[in-house]
Amino acid sequence: MGSGNAGQPAADPVVPLAHRVPDLGALELLLAVARLGSLGRAARERGISQPAASSRLRSMEQQLGVALVERSPRGSRLTDAGALVTDWARQVVEAAEAFDAGAQALRGRRDSRLRVAASMTIAEYLLPGWLIALRTQRPDTAVSLLAGNSAAVAERLLAGEADLGFVEGLDVPAGLDGAVIGHDRLVVVAAPAHPWARRRTELTAAELAATPLILRERGSGTRQVLDAALAGHGGLAAPLLELASTTAVKAAAVSGAGPSVLSELAVGEELAARRLVEVPVLGTRFSRDLRAVWPAGQRPAGPARQLLGLTRALP
Amino acid sequence: MGSGNAGQPAADPVVPLAHRVPDLGALELLLAVARLGSLGRAARERGISQPAASSRLRSMEQQLGVALVERSPRGSRLTDAGALVTDWARQVVEAAEAFDAGAQALRGRRDSRLRVAASMTIAEYLLPGWLIALRTQRPDTAVSLLAGNSAAVAERLLAGEADLGFVEGLDVPAGLDGAVIGHDRLVVVAAPAHPWARRRTELTAAELAATPLILRERGSGTRQVLDAALAGHGGLAAPLLELASTTAVKAAAVSGAGPSVLSELAVGEELAARRLVEVPVLGTRFSRDLRAVWPAGQRPAGPARQLLGLTRALP
DNA sequence: ATGAGCCCATAAGGTGGGGTTATGGGTTCA
DNA sequence: TGAACCCATAACCCCACCTTATGGGCTCAT
To answer: How many CB atoms lie within 10 A of CB B51?
Structure first.
């Protein structure tokens, strides 16, 4: 099934993305040039030689087919296009920083200063940002992250193997205290081409329950909330597809395989770009609280307290 | 490694980000493995050999210090950590796709099928997403982008050098028709350590006007709105810093140099992660419409109409 | 049970992108 | 007019990533 298959949508690029987008080093260099106003200065900050910076930037311009900086004997300024590209580059670099913060926590060992246990959705979409913020305040705080469902989070906390937990369930697990730090909403989404995207009337809960959906595997927090909410409407139909990760579910929904229900946090990007469309549902609000939790009676202190403070400005 | 350095204030990484984060090719490979469930299949899709994929993935795991996939004689599945990393990777890849879509439009020539002129904020934060969406619907539509202020956008449209424009001004430029496609709000932001971040009372407009801010250069749309809104409150004080790009302004604000006023679109990320804090302002709403515009009487058709349709689901 | 057809791993060898140092020419300013 | 910035070019080096060739484990149909 190598070539000539029909169903595959806009999948395999002829020339891969990695060849059309400069690598992270080049993007960081561009940001440094924008900030410092000189190739040499930027090179020094990034720890490379000035000719290396010069050639790197030049090949980036060639690759993009756009002049990015105006070089002069007394410095370099961004062109108009360069300013635009620089801001796009910053988005990529920020995503990479979140990746790095998350990965670092994931590899963190037991002796970390701060051990966090978090549910999947929170670990995926919120925690990396918090860790970046924490790093700017306390650069030397080593953080370890363990991701799992609510029960696993509670278990770790009660066993003394984690200092702070985050859960997205409907209630606080027994033995834990908690504080609501934000809210999450489940949204019904479909590809723009799907009939549901063009409905002019709201979906009824019963209709939703009766329709096969693309879902995460049984046991995911999202699915539990959905199950509970639709229990009174005939129960959830057998899934159209059952996939292992949010990523996979989104990809399937975008490609038009069918409608899905996902956290607002997960599909913000897709909705904004109209790769997915939200389908309003009558009456039912698939809302759930996001909570920080800790062993009952033991108020978070030290790094845990600081991280808790960072989480209070949620969307 | 990584232990040893003490006070380094998160500025220039000792070991650069590019060395701690796998490159785009590796991240795309990981996404393909997650989707297809097999190294060999993923390798084929990405157009490389199976050993290359195997070794690439292995070195990524080594770099991150985390096992990402469980290999078995009948395929590979993501580990729990791998699922998390894959979702973080997807964020990076999506940002890179936006970068690519934007860069491609920027290099687009005059003979493109669809010529767009857009103001800076829209070009920076919204257009790339729209272009990605457009590409999935009409892969063969070549788009060119020209970014400038409202006057420049109007000029291009009236000269017949652009098919569709986007502006964020307060009114529709003369000679053009338009439709509101969304709204943008200017927010006052400060670093979490700034006194304003801890205020319990709302800022007055007069107070804001009297305080030196970090701003874009004169002429930016953001600054015009701000000027107009504060004209009745003593006028804007001389800026604390005047920088050339939104990126630079944000960086300065995050580093604590002072308060700034920026589009909500530009600082969403920073607010969510608490790298910046919004400072409420009494009474005044710095709101502005986002509009699609076209020459009066000439309703958009063809690709322009299609793009217009994509923009109707704004935040 | 046995070969086909997947899966993945290891080994050995090529190539080019990105790095380096060395050098030179332009502008600004004390 | 020399010092101190800016940037560019040239010649060289290295390793990260690719390739092809090969082998072993699991599953399944014949």
So the answer is: 11
Chain A 237-296, CB < 7 Å to strand C: none
Domain boundaries, chain B: 17-109, 114-176+296-313, 183-289
Q: Which of B57, B62, B61 is nearest to B46 (CA)?
A: B57
Using DSSP's 3-state secondary structure scheme, residue A127 falls into: helix
β-bridge pairing B241-243 and B214-216? parallel
Strand C lies under 7 A from the Cβ of residue B51: yes
**Can you give the pTM of this predicted structure?**
0.89
CA distance linking residue B225 with residue A229, whole number of Å: 45
Residue among A5, A19, A87 with most chain B CBs within 10 A, to mutate = A87
For residue A151, how many other CB atoms are within 10 A of its CB? 12
Domain spanning B17-109, CATH architecture: Orthogonal Bundle (1.10)
Question: Using CA atoms, how far apart are residues B152 and B155, in angstroms rounded to an integer?
Answer: 5
Phi/psi region, residue A36 (left: phi>0; alpha: psi -120 to 50; beta: rest), is alpha
Classify B225 in phi/psi space as left (phi over 0), alpha (psi -120 to 50) or beta: alpha
The verdict on domain A183-289 having CATH code 3.65.10.10 is: no
**Per-residue model confidence as pLDDT tens for chain B (315 residues):** 333 333 333 344 567 899 999 999 999 999 999 988 899 999 999 999 999 999 999 999 999 999 999 999 888 988 889 989 999 999 999 999 999 999 999 987 767 789 999 998 899 999 998 998 888 788 889 999 999 888 899 999 999 999 999 998 778 888 899 999 888 889 999 988 899 988 888 899 889 999 999 988 777 778 878 888 888 888 888 888 887 778 778 878 888 889 999 988 888 878 877 778 899 888 666 788 899 999 998 899 889 999 998 887 543
**Closest listed residue to residue A223, CA positions, set A199, A204, A241, A203:** A241
Contact residues, chain B, for A95 at CB < 8 Å: 88, 91-92, 94-95
Q: A265, A184 in Cβ contact below 8 A?
A: yes
Fold (CATH) for B114-176+296-313? D-Maltodextrin-Binding Protein; domain 2 (3.40.190)
**Terminus-to-terminus CA distance in chain B, angstroms?**
42
The answer to whether A117 touches A300, Cβ cutoff 8 Å, is no
Inter-chain residue contact A87 with B245, CB threshold 8 Å: yes
User: Structure tokens of B160?
Assistant: 């017949």
Which two structure tokens, joined as six digits, stand for B293? 């515009």
From the number of C-beta atoms within 10 Å of its C-beta (0-12, 13-18, 19+), residue B235 rates as exposed
Judge whether A114-176+296-313 and A183-289 match in fold: yes
Strand C contacts in A 16-75 (CB under 7 A) = 23, 25-26, 47-49, 51-52, 55-56, 59, 73-74
For chain A, the first-to-last Cα distance in angstroms comes to 44
Q: What is the DSSP letter of B123?
A: H
Map tokens 């005059």 to a residue.
Answer: B110
